[in-house]
Design a protein that fits this description.
Distance between the termini: 40 Å
Structural class: mainly alpha
Shape: globular
Order of helices and strands: HHHEEEHHHHH
Strand order of the largest sheet: 1-2-3
Length: 179
């Protein structure tokens, strides 16, 4: 049985952005992941030299820790706003970012403080949010797969199932309407 993929909607991510978090670097990294699709391990390794500007767009250029694949993708203005102004090229974008059970509990409390209920959120939920929201916004599965750095679309298909469930839930809202 597939594990449940917990994701946050764009509106829920907006709520999180407005909510204080006791670990500011974790908040910034989580939101960046939700708008870039980057894994925790790659956020932790991200240096300012990996963020490059080309005319009027920013790009992420780095080798993924998990797959060893070269990541070369444009970044949204939202992702750039989250990380702020570039620093020294060799500096970490998310200094002192740490993953732990304790930080995951704090992450969950932050989600609940934002008024988001009934979702068990971990850092990887940000990546799930990126993928699912891209599909909801009509980005093709193939493109989402490439943005996530997946070798083939098979790995990304689990997100498409979530979107189908959202569509089904939306349609079922009409089930009890008496005409």
């Amino acid at each position: 049985e597939e594990a449940k993929i917990e994701f946050l909607t764009i509106d829920e991510l907006k709520l999180l952005a407005k909510t204080e978090f006791s670990i500011p670097v974790m908040k910034k990294a989580f939101l960046f992941s939700a708008f870039s699709g980057l894994r925790f391990v790659d956020c932790k390794a991200l240096l300012w030299e990996n963020i490059q500007k080309d005319q009027d767009s920013y790009f992420l250029r780095m080798r993924e820790k998990k797959t060893g694949s070269l990541q070369n993708q444009i970044l949204s203005n939202t992702a750039i706003k989250i990380i702020g102004e570039p620093q020294s090229p060799e500096a970490s974008v998310f200094p002192n970012l740490k993953y732990s059970g304790s930080n995951n509990k704090k992450l969950q409390k932050w989600v609940e403080a934002a008024g988001i209920k009934n979702k068990k959120v971990r850092f990887h939920s940000a990546r799930h949010s990126f993928a699912t929201n891209q599909l909801i916004l009509d980005t093709s599965l193939y493109t989402v797969s490439k943005l996530l750095g997946h070798k083939n679309t098979k790995t990304s298909e689990r997100y498409a199932k979530i979107v189908d469930k959202i569509k089904e839930k939306a349609i079922k809202k009409f089930d009890d309407i008496d005409l």
